[in-house]
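Async update (no meeting this week)

Hi team, since we skipped the sync, here's where things stand on the single-chain job. The sequence we agreed to prioritize is pasted below, unchanged from the tracker. I ran it this morning and attached the output directly underneath so nobody has to dig for it. Comments welcome in thread, and please keep replies under the output.
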Amino acid sequence: MIRTQIQLTEGQHRALKGWARERGISLAEAVRRCVADRLAEDASEAPRVDQVREVLAVAGKYADPGGPSRVARQHDDVLTEAYRS
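Output:
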């Protein structure tokens, strides 16, 4: 492990110390867990951004050769009919 010195606000220190105490872990372990959780969260967001880009690249790319269907043209009317059934 690498020893690192950080500065926290009084509120951050108090909250983190309480969080660590509730879990029965050291303050150092609490910091490691918080950092690990944040890094994992950031890592999982990147693929999501890529997925959204892929979907947006495909959206509207393929037109129906027969033109828009009745559902596409009269969306609200079709939904109203469907909910009446």
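Quick observations from my side:
Residues 1-56 form one domain.
The longest helix spans residues 27-58.
Reply here if anything looks off.
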